[in-house]
Structures are given as structure tokens and as C-alpha cells.
Amino acid sequence: MRIAVTRRIPEAGLGLLDEVVDVSLWEGVLPPSREELLALAEGADGLLTLLTDRVDGALLDRLPTVRVVSNFAVGFDNIDVPACTARGVAVCITPDVLTETTADFAFALLLAVARQVKESANSVPAGRWQTWEPLGFLGHDVFGATLGIVGMGRIGRAVARRSQGFDMRILYTDRGEQAGEGPEPLAKRVDLDTLLRESDFVSLHVPLTAETRGMIGRREFESMKRSAILINTARGPVVDTEVLADALDSGVIWGAGLDVTDPEPLPATHRLLRLPQVIVTPHVASATEATRARMAELAARNALAVLHGETPPRCVNPEVLEHARG
Ligand code: DGY
Q1: Pocket, ligand 1, Cβ cutoff 6 A
Q2: 2-97+289-325 is classed in which CATH architecture?
């Protein structure tokens, strides 16, 4: 059996695969083009993909031996799941193992933007630290502020837990049924308009779907506080990037911490990067050694389980498992 792996991932996953199957590894730093991916995966039984690889029906039609697409990510908006299901291809992801690490990073962005960590730190090597300034780098208090969590799933809850150490009031929206268990005792479920209107910080934790694409646009920014800070560690296209840049530029909101952007990568010349109260990081919220190793191991286990006719730990379309290809 053979699995095509579209980028070098931690040994915890590659090693597992190497023990039992042949591995075709894409060694490039950049993602393979579609033709390169087709050449890499020709005749393979499975694909281990990254969020930068587009998997759709047209690709699978040219790879009829593929039975599993195991994504090295919890998000799977790069994969056309119905197209996979229609072809009997299992789609697997890596939830849970990155929850806490991603929440840490969302909170790191929140603190860094609120307290002007980027601008104040940059001022030191730039030689602008002349004295202690009563009016220099004034930010916003995090403790006691209101945090709006859009999407109270695994990562949203982990962010909520962290915020309790800062005595924050939590508002949240969620698509699911009213959570009887109440994720955090002090969290209040509200509609999006109320959340935007009342929050000092708005942190996005929704998957990218047809419903969430562009969900934070002009109307939403205008209903936020002028002192508000937006944090996005979910997916870039949930926010309208140009409208966000306008909102920041004209003071409609105060700041933003973005680990994801639209497009990715964000061009180095993009005007968002020139705004002092904006921190943009290159989609690294899950990037710790331990978490990336756990993601690699889970992605490998998912793929191997499908190929061995077992139930994979985290499958998005389990209905295909009984009728898997081959
Ligand atoms: C994911 O897993 O979806 C993240 O965006 C990368 O860890």
C-alpha cells in the first residue's frame, strides 16, 4: 500500500506510515501544484494532505485508487467532502490534539494587541526608547473586559477557560442547540449583534463554510465598539479583509490580531501590515513541537486505519467506511 504525503510532517507521523506502507513524500517547501500532486499520488491508496492542498472531485477522478484523504488539520475547508463521499473516499482530520495550543495562541494575540506588544517592542531596537513616557503605547485592559467568542466549539471553550483567569465576562454565539451544560459558568449565549455590540474583544472560532464566509464585514464592524479588538485564529475568509483594513484605518475598530488571513499568505506589502495596532502571524496557532507531533501521529493513524479496514479515530464522513473503495 502507498500513501502520498504532500509535505514533510513530524516524524511521529511519517515514521508510523513508513513502518507499514510505502510513502511518496513531497519534499518541496511550497505546496505541490495540482499536476505535481497528481504525479505524486498516482496509484496511491491514500493522501495525507495539508490545508493548502485542494482536494475535489476532479482530482479524485484522476486518482481512482485513493480511499482516504487524511488532512493534517482540524479544518477541512480545503476538501470537497461531498465529492469524497460520493466516491467512497473517507475524509479524516486532527481535532482535539491542537485545541489548547490554538487557544493559547488566540490569547497571546489578544494580549499582544491589547497591550501594544509589537509596537512597543519594535521601538527599542529602532532607538525610539528615550525615557519613560506617561502617554506612550497606551493599550486596553484585558482583565475585567468583555470577550465575545464567535463559535463555542472546542477551541472557543478553551479560550473561554483562559479568559476566566482574567476575570473577563464572556458572551458567545454558537450554531448548536443551547448548551445545557453551559461551557463556562459565566458565559452568556447571545445573538451575533449583541455580541458585537457589547464585546471589547471578539475572537472567531467558527469553521469556514458557505454560511461563515464573509460573516464579519462592514455591517459587523460598524456595530462593534470603536475600542474593539478582533482576533482571528479560525480561517481568513470568515472576515472581509479589505473591509477590516478600512475599519482599522478609519478607527471604526481599534485593533486586530490575525493568525489567518484572506489571502494566505498575505502579501508583505498589504496595508494591514502597516497599521500599528494590527498583528499578523503566518497561520501558526497550532505550531508547537508537541502539538504538531500529535497532529502528525493522528493524521497517520487515521489514514492507516482506513486502509486496514478499521475505524479511523477522526473521520468526517464515516458513512463511507462500510462501502470504502476497493
Ligand atoms: C487547522 O488545524 O485547521 C489549523 O488551521 C492548523 O493547525
Answers
A1: 51, 73-75, 98, 286
A2: 3-Layer(aba) Sandwich (3.40)
DSSP string across 202-222: EEE-----TTTTT-BSHHHHH
Of 225, 31, 72, the closest CA to residue 146 belongs to: 225
Pick the CATH number of 99-280 from 3.40.50.720, 3.20.20.70, 3.40.50.2300, 3.80.10.10: 3.40.50.720
Report the separation in Å between the CA atom of 75 and the middle of ligand 1, taken as the mean of its atom positions: 6
Which 3 state secondary structure label does DSSP give 188? strand
Please name the residue whose Cα sits nearest to atom 4 of ligand 1.
Answer: 73
Nearest CA to ligand 1 atom 2: 73
Give residue 260 CA to ligand 1 midpoint distance, Å: 10
Q: Closest ligand 1 atom to the C-alpha of 235?
A: 5
pTM for the whole structure: 0.96
In which residue are the cell numbers 502571524 written?
Answer: 281
User: SS3 of 258, please?
Assistant: strand
Residue located nearest, by CA, to atom 1 of ligand 1: 73
Q: Where in the chain is the domain with CATH 3.40.50.720?
A: 2-97+289-325, 99-280
The residues carrying an active-site annotation are: 235, 264, 283
Report whether pLDDT(180) > 50.
no
Q: CA separation (Å) from 52 to 78, 100, 158?
A: 7, 23, 25
Q: What is the pLDDT of residues 105-129, one digit of tens each?
A: 999 999 999 999 999 999 999 999 9
Is 197:64 a contact under the CB 8 Å cutoff? no
> pLDDT tens-digit profile of 248-270?
999 999 999 999 999 999 999 99
Q: Which ligand 1 atom lies nearest to the CA of residue 234?
A: 5
